[in-house]
Amino acid sequence: MRADAARKREQVVTAAVDELAELAVAARSGAPVRLSLDSVAARARVGVATLYRHFPTREALLAAVYHQELTRLCETAPGLAAAGPADEALLVWMHRYLDFVDSKRAMGDGLRAVVASGAVTQADTRARLTEAVVPFLEAGAAAGTLRSDVPPADVVTAMAGAVFAAAPDQQREQAERLLRLLVDGLRPR
User: Fold this and answer.
1) Taking the CA of residue 42 as centre, how many other CA atoms within 13 Å lie in the half-sphere pointing to its CB?
2) What does the alpha-carbon distance between residue 176 and residue 101 come to, in Å, rounded to a whole number?
3) Which of 12, 33, 73, 184 is placed for a possible disulfide with 23 were both Cys, Cβ 3.0 to 4.6 Å?
């Protein structure tokens, strides 16, 4: 891909991320949301034809956004784990995970279609999140701030459970409380 084409593609993905962040706020209040490709193109300062050249369907754009945001989330883990007490850093990272989940809720039916197509899989997402949790658990075990007997996959399963079990009318607040409980349970006694 030429440099200018790659730059425009990145502009579109960034614009879609920003648009979805705004939609996520609306979705929290229960308002129906749908990503507008015209709005994304305008925000990216590209023509709709340019958007469709890079992303022939809404689902293709949503898959690119999903993968980019998952990569960004996972790439922050080693730095956070190294920067501070692992238990506190893990909780900060879990809040970023909540932001990631919130933005995916704004994708709505589009994300369901992406998952159904196989462009995004639960197995890949879990594997990447599990890998991202490892630096926190290793740093915490070495420092004595986190237990050493909890598999990273169990932490990811508990994170997902906390997010998806939270009551719809207090989704974010309850999920944050549940994640604090999870991290507290990871601390040695």
Assistant:
1) 6
2) 12
3) 33
Contact 178, 166 (CB under 8 A): yes
CB 113 within 8 A of CB 59: yes
Which DSSP symbol is given to 121? Answer: -
**What's the predicted TM-score (pTM) here?**
0.88
Would you tell me how many other CB atoms lie within 10 Å of the CB of residue 151?
A: 12
pLDDT per residue as tens, the chain (189 positions): 688 888 999 999 999 999 888 887 777 676 667 788 999 999 999 999 999 999 999 899 999 999 999 999 999 999 999 998 999 999 999 999 998 888 887 777 788 888 889 999 999 999 999 999 999 999 999 999 999 999 999 999 999 999 888 877 788 899 999 999 999 999 998
Select from 3.40.50.2000, 1.20.1740.10, 1.10.357.10, 1.10.10.410 the CATH code of 57-186.
1.10.357.10
Q: How far is CA 102 from the centre of its chain?
A: 8
* Nearest alpha-carbon partner for 152 in 184, 181, 178, 126: 126
Q: Compute CA distances 143 → 140, 146, 182, whole Å.
A: 5, 8, 18
Domain ranges of the chain: 57-186
- CA atoms of 70 and 41, how far apart (whole Å): 22
Q: Which residue has the tokens 């070495």?
A: 142
